[in-house]
Amino acid sequence: MNIGDASKASGVSAKMIRYYERIGLIPQAGRSLSGYRVYTEGEVNTLRFVHRAREFGFPIERIRRLVSLWQGKQPSREVKRVAMEHVAELERRIAELTDMRMALQQLADACVGDHQPDCPILNDLEHHAPAGGLAAGSMMASAGRARSPIAGAAARRS
Amino acid sequence: MNIGDASKASGVSAKMIRYYERIGLIPQAGRSLSGYRVYTEGEVNTLRFVHRAREFGFPIERIRRLVSLWQGKQPSREVKRVAMEHVAELERRIAELTDMRMALQQLADACVGDHQPDCPILNDLEHHAPAGGLAAGSMMASAGRARSPIAGAAARRS
DNA sequence: ATGGCGCTTCCCATCGTGGGAAGGTCAAGG
DNA sequence: CCTTGACCTTCCCACGATGGGAAGCGCCAT
Fold this sequence. Notes:
Two copies of one chain form a homodimer.
Chain A lengths: L2 H8 L3 H9 L7 E2 L5 E2 L2 H15 L4 H12 L4 H34 L10 H8 L31
Helix pairs in contact in A: 1-3, 4-5
The structure holds a DNA duplex.
């Protein structure tokens, strides 16, 4: 099977298959006489595994560990641990975005949105002090602070 | 004021100030005789504006529009529209991440996590069909499908 | 004048993905 | 046999926003 068929069968683009091979996420594929990459069903299966893991948002390095655990028939405890690490990461990112969304929504709610240039959104952007060490609640708009248990997670966008 | 002080006063790193100037998000700063960038209070204020907008997760191109609306004293309707576009974008990303989190959490819940290599997480990764056009509910784990109003938003990660 | 800090420009890396150029291969049909 | 088109190869570039670091110069205090 050539790379095009492997791509269709796995859902991974040919470009990404070559990339995954280059960074060592998947082993180097065999080659035909003319230098074309050749794939077996088993290799396509690995590509499907990687593709599905990407759909879950796993970063490449974590997928590397997952593939290793999978191929090595390791205890499911390890797999679960890696998965839960990723769940925690997802929750962290969800919390950040939720903080932003809530704060911005509050400002937008307070903005009448007419022909006048006066606008609470611009006022916040213009007058908010740069985070000077004190982080708690700094993301929240003035009205209705600390209503969420996940407030203050912004600005740690890594 | 030199770039270091402007950085401290605005919360934007010197590196990023130069970057913003290079891409034209902020106008070119004046220069001292020796070539140092020199900033006025007004320019620092613009930097603060940009910094705060970044904290809200606004991408640079949207900040460009916001700055323009702000400087041009445009009707708040326009500002609100840009802000709500960003809220929609945030909600889209939150929905994607939430889908991933839920699906993965379900698989992890179904994983006993002992010394046995058998694991629902790996089973899903290994046997899930590559998205072949039919997208609805494809992200959901087998148990408890379609329990969320925002299911099926994954794999549109850009 | 010397040391230390700040400023300058320039290049590189991240992370995952796509685009495209330049060139080789293969199969089908004239 | 030759052309055509679809496929494959490698190599380079781009994204978005940010940081790291090198090489070289300016500024100020001791």
